[in-house]
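Supplementary Methods, section 5.1.

A reviewer requested that the exact input to the structure prediction be made available. We therefore reproduce it here, unchanged from the version used in the analyses.
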Amino acid sequence: MKVKGWKQVFAFTFMQQIKTKSFIVGTIIISLLVAVIAFTADFLPAVLMADKFNEANSSEANFLGIEELYINQTGYEAIDFSDISNAYPIKIHDVSTEEADAKIKEIENTAVKTVVSKISRGETGFVIQSSYSGGESGVSESTCGAVNVMLSSMLRSKYLQRLGVPAEEITTVISDIRTSSARAGEAPVSMVQGLINSVVPMISSIVLFIFIFSYSQMVAQSVAIEKSSRIVEYLLTSIKPLALIVGKVLAMCAVSLMQFFIIVISGSIGFVISIPFGIFTKVGQLSSQAAATSAGMEITGILDDIRSAFANVDITVFIIMIVTFILGFLLFAGLAGLAGSSISKMEDLAPALQPISIIGVIGFYFAYFPQISGEENTMSILSRYLPISSPFILPSDYMLSRIDMTEAIISIVILAVFDVLLVMLVAKVYENIILHTGNRLKLGDMLKMSK
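The structure derived from this sequence is encoded token-by-token as follows.
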């Protein structure tokens, strides 16, 4: 068999590669970076939406421990805020402007958890100014802010009731309005879903391109080094040429997959660590009363959009990702291996790889740039079936439900067919060019050898 001995080449190349300092250091740095990104992806939204959580939680029992709330209303017919005492153990006091000012000075150094709120009607709307007790009361600025949120919500509701708006319509009127847009004939997409649909494919195509292209070029470099140093002549005394290239390509593919899985596991660990502090846990901790507020509904709505965007994520996504990664790697690594074997001097390696680099960049362009518009177009459809671009875009397209399983299988089959054709080409010409010396062989020369 022409590939007899590939296992020995595979084992040697694999062990040599994972022992290199560049692989070890690079894997550690990238893994730590991905872990931090994964942690931040869950933790940062909880931080950025802290005000929304405070607003939602302002309706919970005991209302953050406030014991007394003094309310002064000027410039409009006073609203009745006594409902607060019916729902929470807070004493409500209606006071004049003078009494409110005196109370603010009084609570500067008190242990009683107190808030004084002055509500007025300005030229453009209502204004709420609240002061909270200092000393050993333990009331914080965020707590006072939550009081303002509650008063604002009640003020809107009570004022609308006074204007004759039916009670069942008030919640609809004061709640946040969620918007979406879509081309005619397509499903509407929210702002969050639109952002995910644009960012995820771009990141996915960049990551897959870097992994596939960088490791495939390492195959060419390894072949070129062995050939220029004449080591290959000793190797070929016991191993067939085709077995040599097969072992190298498969070893590099295994190394890249191992590094990829290490990075994925690191990201998963970072996400798991973030769970107790992340947005999903905080949403789960919202009481049913808090979740029913406008802020609570906004938060849960955003998470619903995220879940909807990734609704198609299951084990098939990872299978498709691995299969397309392997097939894409074999395609570019096979081309790179031919380029490396076509030269006799290391200084010729860059020119030999230039056509493959151009092909790779074109493939990346087809996979990456259609995602910027976020719309379905001819280029985005073509990128899914073109072998030089499908490895970079197919996993994210399936993950985001842009294509179904049938379309994914068609794309994979096309890529596999091109891999088979490339293997047939390599099998015909590699034995003839691996020992070639002199000027660099061009593609036309190699095609002539395959006839």
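Residues 6-48+185-450 form one domain. These observations are discussed further in the main text.
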